[in-house]
Specification:
single chain; 395 residues; mainly alpha; two-stranded antiparallel sheet; 18 helices; 5 strands; globular
């Protein structure tokens, strides 16, 4: 057993990769298959996550629980959901939300209780990048444009994925390749990034596009700050922005009108952001009409479908949380996300922090409580935090 434990030593000069890391990479790579069910109610991702968890048993003696603020915010968040069971409007929905969030938190805590050397962290990041290419492969070979009015999505054996959700698997790869292009001037990295952006446009996802733009803008800002806003950095960013605008308009010129109109501001206003405007209005109305107790603590986690005018989800995690867990719950949720974002930024993990910004923007137009890319980026931050790794500042 000496060999499989070798990479647990706190020395990044070791290049031995643990079995646990390879199994985690497999799970991260196949994350886009989350919409496929092995049996009713059990997705392929739920089965695959068992691989690295089982692998953890080989390294149990290296597990280390860290009593820090990150564990505290996780306990605070899950505890808030559990407490809402005692006054919830819909106990079944609240219980399901607690199980969903609780299981994801348990997985994150378990897999991040180990030290990962530099090579292992590189493999984990590459797996997240390659999952974007797997998503691209699915969109090319299992594409369907008839289900969503011309928008490209993935359909396998009659089961399809929401095109908005597909975009989330492109955020990390796009920022990764953009970082390579900015730092090393790799033209091929810019080309690969552009391929992903074209696929995002083909999905017609406005939320996905805004998330990617927000991530790119944030990365540019951080990079310019590290460069102290030198003339060369400003010129480079202006040049990249100009190229992107030309590229964006050129690609739109080749797309069907049913897709291009979705990126028109007047059309978005006209269709009420695909009906989301009316949903948000009904949620705000319910919040304002709630007793003081429920305004503070909500009606119970997972109960949003009981309060929208059409029985749908809220399509905005923040507005949705106002009704579900109240003002106090929204504050807890903000602290939870901000704690991880701040840590990624402090560790100089700018690709990770920029991607995190993108997922938060996506959360403003979608309900992403069980969305794998968000949980995976939080897992990555926890792994980085708990591992002694030399980190590079963006150059």
């Amino acid at each position: 057993m000496q060999n499989i434990y070798q990479s647990e030593r706190l020395n990044d000069n070791y290049i031995v990769i643990s079995i646990r890391t390879w199994l985690l990479a497999v799970y991260l790579f196949f994350a886009p298959f989350d919409f496929l069910q092995v049996i009713p109610g059990v997705s392929l991702s739920r089965v695959l996550i068992c691989l690295p968890l089982v692998g953890c048993f080989l390294y149990m003696k290296y597990m280390k629980i860290r009593l820090d603020r990150f564990l505290f915010v996780i306990i605070l968040y899950v505890g808030m959901l559990i407490i809402s069971m005692f006054y919830t409007y819909d106990l079944e929905s609240t219980s399901q939300r607690i199980i969903t969030v609780g299981l994801n938190m348990a997985v994150i805590l378990t897999l991040s209780m180990f030290h990962y050397n530099k090579s292992e962290i590189t493999i984990i990041k590459k797996a997240m990048v390659l999952s974007g290419w797997l998503t691209l492969f699915l969109m090319l070979f299992y594409s369907n444009t008839s289900l969503m009015g011309g928008r490209i999505t993935v359909s396998v054996n009659g089961v399809y994925q929401d095109p908005n959700y597909l975009c989330g698997f492109f955020i990390f790869p796009i920022i990764h390749y953009f970082g390579e292009f900015i730092k090393k001037k790799y033209i091929f990295s810019f080309i690969k990034m552009s391929v992903f952006i074209i696929l995002v446009l083909l999905t017609g996802s406005r939320g996905g596009l805004l998330a990617i733009l927000g991530s790119l803008i944030f990365y540019c800002l951080i990079w310019m700050i590290t460069k102290k806003f030198t003339l060369s950095s400003i010129v480079l960013i202006i040049s990249v922005t100009s190229i992107f605008i030309i590229f964006f308009n050129t690609v739109l010129g080749f797309l069907p009108q049913t897709i291009t109109q979705r990126f028109d501001a007047s059309f978005t206003v006209q269709d009420g952001a695909a009906g989301r405007g009316a949903i948000w209005e009904s949620i705000i109305y319910k919040f304002n009409d709630s007793p003081n107790f429920n305004m503070l603590f909500g009606w119970g986690a997972g109960t949003i479908r009981n309060f929208t005018y059409n029985g749908s989800v809220g399509h905005n995690i923040w507005i949705e949380s106002l009704v579900e867990v109240g003002v106090i719950g929204v504050l807890v949720l903000f602290i939870f996300y901000f704690t991880f974002f701040k840590k990624a930024l402090k560790m100089d993990e700018y690709v990770v922090s920029a991607s995190f910004i993108g997922y938060m923007i996506m959360a403003m137009s979608m309900s992403l409580y069980s969305y794998k890319p968000i949980w995976n980026i939080i897992l990555l931050i926890m792994i980085l935090k708990n591992s002694t790794v030399k980190r590079e500042i963006v150059k």
